[in-house]
Amino acid sequence: MERTTIQPDDNACLKATGALSAGATNGTGIDIGPGFYKITIHVTAVSGTSPTLDLVFADSDAVGGSYTSRGAFPQISAVGVYEAYVKFVQAWVRYTGIVGGSSTPIVTCSIWAEPVLE
To answer: Which domains does the chain carry?
Structure first.
């Protein structure tokens, strides 16, 4: 695969806007390179009874390799913009999202990574 070059002020889309439903979802690994990143979650809608979203970010040296957790967000349960910083050691990055709640919980969101200087 061709390497993605991410520069300060560029954003890498880890997840396009869309719904995550009950259970766990692993995002597709994206080659953004190691470094320190600001992760921004844009939650545009939540539905169901008491919907929650737990997010963990991990990296790997290969898209199909073993992923190592590098950071997690506090649990999200409302529409809003959430930010945290994560340092990735390997080039391939992905998220794991776990949606909880009842009555068909759904969280609609997008996830972006922006490199920052350490």
So the answer is: 12-115 (2.60.120.1110)
Task: Please tell me the distance from the alpha carbon of residue 92 to that of residue 59, in angstroms, as a whole number.
Answer: 5
Gap between the Cα atoms of 6 and 3, Å rounded: 9
pTM: 0.88
Helix, coil or strand: residue 73? coil
pLDDT in tens, 21-46: 999 999 999 999 999 999 999 999 99
The separation between the first and the last C-alpha atoms of the chain, rounded to the nearest angstrom, is 27
| Planar angle of CA 10, 14, 15, nearest 5 degrees | 125
